[in-house]
Design goal:
By secondary structure, the protein is mainly alpha-helical. It contains 5 helices and no strands. Helix 1 packs antiparallel against helix 2 and helix 4 crosses helix 5. It starts with a helix and ends in an 11-residue tail after the last helix. The mean pLDDT is 85.
Length: 154
Amino acid sequence: MASKEVEKQMTKTLQDLLRQLYEIETIAGDFTQAASQELLLTRLQELLHGFQIFKERAAAYRSTQVPAALCRYVDEGGHPDDFVRQAFRQAAADNQLVAGRVAAIEALRDELMASGTAAFSEAASVYKSVVESKQQQQQQQQQWCCCCPECCWW
């Protein structure tokens, strides 16, 4: 991750590039004299130099990944902070939806177990013993340093 100083430099470089683009736009809009051509060429060279500096400083951000949805949102005129707020709200809503589904499935499982136990008591007791045995095996595997009992004999 880039340091705060690198971030400040990158921000300043971006601000400079935007300022230079604005100046070029202004010069091109008022392109009436030969002096304007010299000034435009000078500003374009400065802009190219600024892009080179930007490219050099961008190396610190190579590992940074930005979601495509965020890029589209910003391209459409949205503010990145608003995108993050909406993403968190959506995640919270999705979490509540999934929590409701999990609760419904657990209630269905409990109801099926109760009905199954009432109808097939022997099969239900065998099933419960198998489930308990599996849970004990999982607990033992969590105590080992890896996933196999052969290397964890102590």
